[in-house]
Design brief:
This protein is mainly α. 72% of the residues lie in helices and 7% in strands. It contains 13 helices and seven strands.
């Protein structure tokens, strides 16, 4: 979709991206000024982020398409009007820009990464909202592209394709991006936070939100066989965030770190099972997506608590009390129990106890319930 302005044709999606870039640049400037970083930090970081974000977004899309699907001539790699882009490629490029900008300006890399982490959700939200202008392309394609299940009624969160209403996945992704932005802004206001906390929280939350948003997609964009490449990259972001959140306290309390790492394995298996179930079972799709949200919430909760314990260790020199750890494992148990109950009820409803994909979803949740119950008992005994 294009807009006529002063005799020129303007691509509306590109206009949204430009607005997102300007908002992100303003956020970087505000964070750098608020953190009293070096004077040239904001312009260097902003310009480098825009250049590398665009380059890496296009690069990842072209590499994947050339290797897996069809060869894209190198001359077309630099085209900004044809082909596609990768959101995770943009995130990787902006993170790389933070490290390079730190080398150029002499600022701490971790502070640069904090700054771009606050700005990135604005760019993601603007791009996702702009995807609504591509609705004409969706209709011409004759298939569900970036659309999830069919829904009744129409509205801001739906899109029409072949006279049917579908949930607009990109609008949900935009809402999640704005939620992420607000969380990071409030985290930025915490005077007791440490450098790098914002970046780690971004990795965990962006990874978790990305896994869910990609799960809602029913198209074949950047998909190899049954694997959504961007969903895998988001999962790796979540995993990296959890590892970084516990790195500083691993020597003092290995059990919580090991529990968080172990929890990632069944969480991944559970999400894989849920992805297969979404495509190949008659289970309620809303229930399956809610269960997936619960699965990714567990490592995020544990990662946030690890950051809190690291801060307490840095300030007091001693680990925080065991009460908070018992509480976080209790929350994890409650989430796992809810997942198991929801899956069991759904399997019973459709009489599919022999469905391997549904079982692949429920067994890891049972394992998580057991391991978190054990950890809760251990921390309860430590209190005594």
């Amino acid at each position: 979709m294009k807009l006529e302005l002063l005799g020129m044709e303007i691509n509306i999606w590109g206009l949204y991206c430009a607005i997102g870039a300007l908002c992100s640049f303003a956020a970087i400037w505000a964070v750098c000024a608020g953190q009293e970083m070096k004077k040239n930090s904001a312009p260097v970081l902003g310009l480098t982020s825009i250049v590398l974000g665009i380059a890496c977004s296009r690069l990842l899309y072209c590499l994947f398409t050339t290797i897996v699907q069809v060869r894209i001539p190198f001359s077309a790699w630099i085209s900004i009007t044809d082909g596609g882009w990768s959101m995770t490629g943009m995130v990787i490029g902006v993170m790389l820009a933070g490290w390079i900008s730190a080398k150029i300006t002499g600022e701490k890399p971790i502070k640069m990464l904090d700054a771009v982490s606050v700005a990135l959700p604005l760019m993601i939200a603007a791009e996702r909202i702009g995807e609504r202008s591509l609705q004409g392309f969706f209709e011409e394609a004759g298939e569900k592209f970036n659309l999830s299940r069919e829904v009744a009624g129409s509205g801001f969160m739906t899109v029409v394709n072949q006279d049917k209403n579908y949930l607009a996945t990109y609008m949900i992704a935009a809402v999640l991006a704005m939620v992420l932005f607000l969380i990071l802004v409030f985290s930025l206001l915490d005077r007791k936070r440490r450098d790098g906390d914002i970046w780690i929280r971004f990795l965990m939350l962006c990874g978790a939100f990305g896994v869910i948003a990609e799960s809602l997609r029913y198209d074949d964009y950047l998909v190899y066989s049954f694997v959504r490449i961007q969903q895998v990259l988001y999962a790796l972001m979540l995993f990296a965030g959890v590892i970084l959140s516990g790195r500083k306290i691993a020597a003092r309390d290995k059990r919580i770190c090991r529990a968080a790492m172990i929890a990632m394995i069944p969480m991944i298996i559970e999400c894989v099972g849920l992805e297969f179930s979404l495509d190949r079972s008659d289970a309620n799709k809303v229930i399956l997506h809610l269960v997936m949200a619960g699965a990714v919430a567990i490592p995020v909760i544990q990662g946030f608590v690890l950051l809190r314990r690291k801060k307490a260790d840095d300030e007091d020199g001693v680990p925080e009390g065991t009460g908070s750890m018992k509480a976080v494992f209790l929350v994890s148990v409650v989430i796992s129990v809810a997942e198991v109950a929801a899956m069991a009820a759904e399997i019973t409803r459709i009489h599919s106890w022999k469905d391997p994909f549904l079982l692949l979803s429920i067994i890891p949740a049972v394992f998580l319930m057991l391991i978190h119950s054990l950890m809760m008992i251990i921390y309860k005994s430590k209190e005594k």
